[in-house]
Amino acid sequence: MTLAKGSAFCVFLAILSAVVALISLRTGAVPISWREMVGGGDSVGSMVFQTMRVPRLLLGFLCGGALGLCGAAMQGLFRNPLADPALVGVSGGAALGAVAAIVLGGPFLSHSIYILPAAAFFGALAAAILVHVIATRGVRVDVPTLLLAGIAINAFAGAGIGWMIYGATDSQLRDFTFWSLGSLAGAGWDATLGCLPFVVVAAGLLAFRARALNALALGESNAWHLGVSIEGVKHAVLAATAFAVGAVTAFTGTIGFIGLVAPHLVRLAVGADHRLVLPGSFIVGGCLLCAADVIARTARAPAEIPVGIVVASLGAPFFLGLLLREKRARA
Amino acid sequence: MRKILCLLLLSTTLHAATPLRVVTVGGAVTETAFALGSGDVLVGVDTSSTFPEMARALPQVGYQRALSAEGIASLRPDLVIVSANAGPPTALAHLAALKIPVLRLVAGDSLDGATTRVLQMGEALGREGEATKLVEKIASEVGARVPLAAHSPRVLFVMSLGQGSPMVAGRETAAAAMLELVGAQNAGNAIQGYKQFSREALVLLDPEIVVTTSRTLAANGGEADLAKLLPGLEITAAGRSGRLIVMDDLFLLGFGPRIGEAAQELATKLNEPSRRAER
Amino acid sequence: MTITARGLSIVRGGINVISDVRFSVSSGAFLVVLGRNGAGKSSLLHALSGELQPASGEIAFDGVNIRQWSPVTLAMRRSFLAQQTDCRLPFLAGEIVHLGAEAAGQRGVGARRLVASALEEAGVEHLAERAMWQLSGGEQQRIHWARILAQVNGKPQGHCLFLDEPISSLDIAHQHELLQKAANLARRGATIIAVLHDLNLASRYADQLMLLHETRLLALGPPSEVLTSARLREVFGITTHVMPHPIDGTPLILVGPTTFGTEIRTDSAQTALQTLC
């Protein structure tokens, strides 16, 4: 990695974020004038801008960013570009928490709009802790066991979700289905500020681990011989994923693909050095989700498409295209 | 008495003037708006608003439990009328924050519920007179329904056929309420809500007549043949007689302004003699 | 760097691989560990490098127990080249070597310079901008060798290199090149501890050989002392003929003519052949 390449990349990310932010703030079902955006006041336009557009943009960035960052960290941990935050049971746990709240929460749900996100978050955390405990002996995290434990916990969560679905009423079923499609529609300042501390904590945990993740790519033995604290970085990655992905999934439902695609795009552009891949994946993930959200909000206005569907519909063919192109390049 | 108090309470939250731009969320809600003559002020409806035909041409605000506040706001409504089922709560909270009046109708799959909702809407839309007339019309239609001949038949309501495990309506469902309204017995009375039954369990219920919706029929071959839809019921009374009734979802279960007509039609069909000779 | 081991016992998977081994290696030594598969050679290296916890015994670097060294300090004083390294993320060769430079404590410009010189020393500077996955197994191994050289940071004195079958993927020329370079580092003060399978390469480059057999240290000494036909028969069960190299006299091990039988003289071999055919 040369200094020039790194700086050029940073400039590009800054411009990309600014463009996506601008487009996101300017588009939507309600037309908002520049004056309403900047000047404030209490017309419908400015109210929509202040209470909905801006927090939604920020939530989209936080959520997409957390997914991208943790996706990159997971790929570093598992030493495999196909890894994804969902592997360690976080998404399954969140979904189980959410469906339990929807089906069993009943009367409590009408008291507070925070019951559902709280249940989803605790589900995510519980799953992550369980996976972590199963795979850890003493201080040492055994990565193959981690993968298997994640699969087992996801399956268990799936069973639990199945039970809930079986006992659910029609409207509960629909609610859960829409939740699991993933949406930024519930975004208000409370959701955005609710996620923020968790994403900040996760970023802090991963901030100085880039070099360690680089070394880990050569295997634990080599990384150890290079003087890297491998157990420290493994715990950090797991904790960061549990917090950040747990929090964003709690508020926005399960959004897939971004944790896989964002780091891949960054690596295509600047290579595998985690010092660029980690922050790059955060920004690119955030931009991807915000861009998908623009489409989700406007393609069928005044109705909204759950953003998870948009991400998957565009993400999957795009990713396939990338893979085919790479396959041809390697042939 | 409680009804009147509710109405008074609700009325204090609404504009005094007749709204000129209204969004309705809920199939029965939209129907009622049209029935009260306010179809021309509607600027947006949800996905379940399929009747009358004109409603389908209106702008869509999405699925009633996954509404978009910004989307609704972009239609600049003076009033948003939502069914009790509407959500998510955050969207409704956003609408309130944007100072857009939202009227949430009372819940209740019953004749009482239906008439209260008509009156609520009549008041909100400034069509009190039409509302009262509609309520009377419903009452007379229900009263005029054909009483069930002989005994009260055991009716099985099937909501979907789900790959061999049909979803049956138990107690406390809209279907059960309709059956009760016309005086039939709900074969699925032992359970609560909609539940999946195995074919064997269905046989144990021994229904005399099976009722299902047109959407379910369309999703399963479109042929109104009981033997084809639910094979294995041959030994039940319904299976032997082949008695199957199909009605439109919104019409039968909406508990909207057409509830009286629906009750009449259901009662009439329940009275029809069996279509196949007894084996 | 002096490495001493006392009462070293290693257990892997419940099985005792090494019992009560004791030896000392000092600066400038090139020690090659020999033995059959499963004799514990790799385990010994991993224990000496500090990665594997021995069942009992003590290992010290320059007199200080290895447990008292922090991983970061250890990384500046010793490096480990494995037989094969798997890397599935699309790193460039230069970036891999950079990891070695960072382990040596270098950053920024200093690191880049160190990477350049290590690549040159290993003869792979032309591969720096290539992705690792594009390189052959042998080329990848040479990049890892460059990484190790970067870790040495131009200060072989006081550094120990552990080489665990480092040449199995290299062609014959590069095999010798790597071992020659290691021998040069030893001459400049480094300590080299390597596991090799090729007896002749061991004989040529090592100044000390260690023979491990059935959990014990069977022999430790210069090649001429350790490499005898009797010893080799005892450890490997093969028939060998050891003779001095015609030019410089280092022991040359020739296997056969009948590898697994007793030693037969040439005329008896002919008679045996005639009887069979």
Can I get a quick summary?
Chain A is mostly helical and 331 residues long. Chain A is built from 14 helices and two strands; from the N terminus they run αααααββααααααααα. Chain A has a two-stranded antiparallel ribbon with strand order 1-2.
Write up this protein.
The complex is a heterotrimer of chains A (331), B (279) and C (277). By secondary structure, chain A is an all-alpha fold. Chain A is built from 14 helices and 2 strands. Chain A has helices spanning 3-26, 34-39, 44-77, 90-105, 115-135, 143-166, 170-181, 189-206, 210-216, 220-225, 230-252, 258-270, 274-298, 307-330, and strands at 136-137, 140-141. Chain A has a two-stranded antiparallel sheet with strand order 1-2. In chain A, a hairpin with a 2-residue loop joins strand 1 (136-137) and strand 2 (140-141). With 279 residues, chain B is an alpha/beta fold. Chain B is 40% helix and 14% strand. In chain B, helix 2 links the parallel strand 1 and strand 2. Residues 275-279 of chain B have low confidence and may be disordered. Chain C is α/β, with parallel strands linked by helices and 277 residues long. Chain C is globular and about 55 Å long. The N and C termini of chain C lie far apart (59 Å). In chain C, helix 4 packs across helix 5. Chains A and B meet through helix 3 and helix 7 of A and helix 3 and helix 4 of B.
